[in-house]
Amino acid sequence: MKKIAITIVVLLLVALTRWLEHNNNVVTQVVAEPQRSNKEQILLTESQSKFVKVKPVIDYDFQANKEAVGSIAFNDLKTIQVFPNYAGKIHRIFVKLGDTVKVGQPLYAIDSPDLLQAESTLIASAATKELSSKALVRAQALFKLKAMAEKDYQQAISDQQTAEGAYQSAINNLKIFGKTDTEIQLMIKNKKADPELIVRSPINGQVITFNNPAPGAYVQPGTPPAPMAVSDITSKWMIANVAESDISTIKLGQSVDVKVPSLKDLHFKGVVSSIGAQVDINTHSVLVRSDISDESNSLIPGMLSYFTITTGNLKGFPAVPFESVVRQGDGTLTVWVTGNGRLFEKRQVTIGLQQGGNYQILSGLHSGEMVATQGAVFVSHAYDMSTE
After folding, report:
1. CATH assignment of the domain containing 295
2. Rounded to whole angstroms, how far apart are CA atoms 210 and 78?
3. pLDDT in tens, 22-59
4. Residue 92: which domain range?
């Protein structure tokens, strides 16, 4: 009987030991797995928490921006249609479409009857001046010898002064045609008129239009089309269509930031220079023109572009890094809030502007709260796994 009792006690002890071992394994498994409650919380293990970084919600000053789509264009205010000053037939062409030119560089030349007449007048006046000057020298010598009447001497002086005036007038006329002093003196020396009138670039820039200026074509000043046009390529326009609901926030002189999709790594700065006077009844938008600095000549007219303009400042809004916000399968945006770096609570948020690597938080968070940044997606995934 005593042996039976001892046997029963031993069996009970063995059973108790196995039961305790089983419960210990269960506890170990539970601790090893993240914990959650009905508040959409998850408790990470120490090893899991090492994959997550937390930062406080900060106050951030956002800029209120407006965006619009447009295109690049040449700056018409810095584009010159290069007409000749006088009528004539094109004789030679020195440049081609797309060439970069300097101020004063020859573009094309015409045979001008007006220039030929002016040069002939100069040659004649130069000869008259020379003769009258020699006559005056002789008259002075004779007058000193009292071999010439005073009235004849005064007439010689008058003739020389008249010839000098006509000569200077002829020189000034040729300078209007663009002739230099060197060219004028060479013409007088050779006594040969040259009807070729060279038309030069009035500015530094690029030849942007080439209206078939073939040799022999007759051109006149101010009669379109001009043989060619030159534009200052360091300045471009961006023509944007701004929605009429936004136009009240756009002001002359405001700074704009321009992005061109085809030039991904480049940003361009500009200033609003013109706001349209009427709304397009079809698109309900207003044309806004901005002057864009383009010293590198990277912008090509016609390029699709986007502009961003700052219309105000929004100070002190709660903000979190982009990586803190996790988009759920139903489209809602959430962050994971923590107090100790291990227990995280899911919080739905509403975001606004996106600037400087931060989301503007319109609702759901307050400044100073700690949220997961790097590893926020990991926390969300761990929570989803724990709910399956």
Report:
1. 2.40.30.170
2. 17
3. 444 433 333 334 444 457 899 998 899 999 999 999 99
4. 81-112+195-231
Structure tokens at 303: 């390029």
Neighbours of 182 (CB within 10 A): 8
Preceding omega of 225 cis (within 30 degrees of 0): yes
Cα dist from 353 to 68, 107, 150, 378, whole Å: 16, 52, 96, 25
Contact (Cβ atoms closer than 8 angstroms) between residue 110 and residue 91:
yes
Co-location of 249 and 300 in the same domain: yes
Is residue 14, in this structure, part of any structural domain at all?
no
The model's pTM is 0.62
Residue bearing tokens 């006088």? 86
For 5, 131, 151, 289, the CA distances from 154, given in Å and listed in that order, are 166, 16, 5, 68
Question: Are the C-beta atoms of 235 and 293 separated by less than 8 Å?
Answer: yes
Does 9 map to a domain?
no
Residue with token string 């770096």: 341
If one counts every other C-beta atom within 10 angstroms of the C-beta of residue 122, the result is: 23
CB 319 within 8 A of CB 358: yes
Residue 202 lies in a domain: yes
pLDDT, tens digit, for every residue of 160-210? 999 899 999 989 988 888 788 888 888 888 888 888 888 999 999 999 998
